[in-house]
């Protein structure tokens, strides 16, 4: 089998999630590494956390693919004693490539929002925020197989996402046939939710005033948390990258990182 290079894996990812789809503020793509470096082992993860990078280095991983970028804002200095500095120092010393696909992977067909929609057993009808020039946009609006009460929708979400709890706002007897959803932090898309025709908004990181706005509109939201709404991509992307490498005859092993946990705990 031919030796895979970073550029081969990047091409696979970018064909699926074109960088042009990313939001202007985003910093998707190669954060650290060289395009010509050889790749035999890839890990996928949600975040380039210190524990993930450290474990990747110990396990001889050549490339770490994450959803969230290592760097969103430009660095003014690089103190190697800081968590960020330690990650970069460790990755450089072990020749670990760091690459991310963020809002472009959120938007693209088959990306994070579609993975979430499919896991919930919903049928996507349209984008919550339409993209430009027939490109996919942020979020999705999807139909339930059968209309039901909000409390039944909440039970469905908990079961299908393997969650013990969610935060929810709305009358438990509200009749629901359409759900708007946005992986990650979707509070900024409340106006689009209100205009979508959906009765429920599923996302993460909703606040008190968002809850009041939804309540006043006679609608509902289900906050599953940022982590739960996006972590599904880790296994899905590992499978996708491995499938594409196999199809191209590239000698690569791709594995999902199993170390990440939701930082929030309920006591």
TrEMBL record:
Domain of life: Bacteria
Family matches, as Gene3D superfamilies: NIF3 (NGG1p interacting factor 3)-like
InterPro entries named among the record's database cross-references: DUF34/NIF3, DUF34/NIF3_sf
GO cellular component: cytoplasm
Alphabetical keyword list: Metal-binding
Any one Gene Ontology molecular-function term assigned to this protein's record: metal ion binding
Sequence positions that bind a divalent metal cation: 67-68, 106, 226, 230
Residue ranges crossing the lipid bilayer per the database entry: none
KW Metal-binding (keyword) present: yes
The keyword Metal-binding is assigned to this record: yes
Family: Belongs to the GTP cyclohydrolase I type 2/NIF3 family.
Name of this protein: GTP cyclohydrolase 1 type 2 homolog
Organism field: Desulfatibacillum aliphaticivorans
């Amino acid at each position: 089998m031919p030796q895979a290079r970073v550029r081969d894996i990047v091409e696979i990812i970018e064909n699926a999630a074109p960088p042009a789809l990313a939001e202007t503020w985003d910093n998707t793509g190669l954060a650290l590494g060289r395009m010509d470096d050889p790749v035999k082992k890839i890990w996928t993860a949600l975040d380039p956390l210190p524990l993930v990078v450290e474990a990747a280095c110990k396990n001889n991983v050549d490339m770490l693919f994450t959803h969230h970028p290592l760097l969103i804002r430009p660095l003014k200095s690089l103190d190697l004693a800081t968590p960020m500095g330690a990650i970069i120092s460790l990755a450089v010393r072990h020749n670990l490539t760091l690459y991310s696909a963020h809002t472009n992977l959120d938007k693209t067909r088959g990306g994070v929002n579609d993975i979430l929609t499919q896991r919930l057993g919903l049928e996507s009808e349209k984008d919550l925020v339409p993209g430009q020039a027939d490109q996919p946009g942020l979020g999705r609006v999807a139909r339930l197989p059968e209309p039901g009460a909000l409390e039944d929708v909440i039970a469905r979400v908990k079961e299908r996402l393997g969650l013990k709890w969610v935060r929810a706002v709305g009358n438990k007897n509200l009749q629901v046939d359409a759900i708007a959803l946005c992986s990650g932090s979707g509070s900024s898309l409340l106006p689009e939710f209100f205009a979508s025709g959906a009765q429920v908004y599923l996302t993460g990181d909703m606040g008190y005033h968002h809850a009041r706005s939804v309540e006043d509109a006679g609608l509902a939201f289900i906050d599953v948390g940022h982590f739960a709404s996006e972590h599904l991509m880790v296994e899905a992307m590992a499978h996708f990258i491995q499938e594409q490498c196999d199809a191209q005859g590239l000698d690569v092993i791709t594995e999902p990182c199993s170390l990440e946990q939701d930082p929030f705990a309920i006591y």
